Amino acid sequence: MIICDMIFNFFNLRDLFKPFVCLGCGVKSKNIDLIGVNKILSDGNSNLIGLLDEKSLLLEKLNTEWGDTQRKLSFCEDELGKYSREVNTLKIQIDDLIKQIPITDPLEVELNTKYPAVNVLYTGRRVVGRNEIFKVDVRGFIQPGDYYIQKIVYENKWREIPDYEDKVIAIYKWYKENLYGYKSDDRLYNNLEMWAYPWETLSWRSLKGKAVGDCEDASFVQQSLYLASGVPYYLVRSSCGNVPSGEGHCTNYVYSKTTGDWRHLNSTFGGGAIPDKLSGFPTTEDAYSGVDAMGIKIPWFSMNLKLAFSGGITGACKKQFKKRFIFV
Fold it and tell me: For 160-208, what is each residue's pLDDT tens digit?
């Protein structure tokens, strides 16, 4: 019944059949206007075809738009994939950069700020070819990047020793056995006081068979070897001052994390066996008490690769200091 109503409504047949009633009702029917029915059917058919054409065009348009949407979606997915790869690459690069950022050891800050930092110039060097004094920053005598220093470190594989205290002992022993030779500056350079750079000290091997020099020359080569092998710079210092006897001396101190104090590795060695552990070397206190005859009892200054330190110079040693150095 519902379907019939739809057909009648669509083809406008309801008005046409109004005159007719069901024969079962006993009412006479009028003659059916077949021409009118055909016309209505024809018009309905045309309307249906037009509607179908319209719907077909709409469907075609929707298919076209859907295809465009799919292409745009595919493009967006490609772009998203590209950006995702770029983001991942940036993350990797950032992680690499973060790994390169040096992590500051709190001990570095502590040791580098305990005493006032100063600029110390050495006044014993002359410009080559001219009789002219050239004042040199004392930190420049420590040269871990020097080719000859690096070569020695590489040949002995000291970088492979994991513990820095063991590394220091290995280098110190090797230096005494293979390089060390003491000669005063007046015998080497015809100069009462001449600080040499590590390469200058090492150059004597070709003539003397040893890296000859006096206390500061050996100190600078040894400290350069320690740093080149991977020992943190702030754990090593060359210290200049007076030993218990009153004589001037330049030697090395290495900070032991095991014992929590500075240990004296005499740059000119002296007699006796070399301890196997850093904790077996004299402390700074041993110089004050006179136990360490070659330790620095009255310091003028000390220095590592980056900084020089001094608490000030007073008394008789001030005159000794002024013969060779100036604070600026």
Answer: 999 999 999 999 999 999 999 999 988 988 888 899 999 999 999 988 8
Cα 292 to chain centroid, rounded: 40
In the block, tokens 């009412």 appear at: 27
User: Residue 303: which of 115, 21, 90 has the closest Cα?
Assistant: 115
Cβ atoms within 10 Å of 326's Cβ, excluding its own: 12
DSSP 28: P
Residue ranges of alpha helices (H) inside 101-233 are 106-113, 147-156, 164-178, 185-189, 198-203, 205-208, 215-228
Q: Can you name the CATH fold of 108-327?
A: C8orf32 fold (3.10.620)
Is-contact 204 210, C-beta < 8 A?
A: yes
pTM over 0.85: no
Domain residue limits, the chain: 108-327
Q: Please give the mean pLDDT across all residues of the chain.
A: 86
298-303: strand order across its sheet = 117-118, 308-309, 298-303, 236-242, 248-256, 261-265
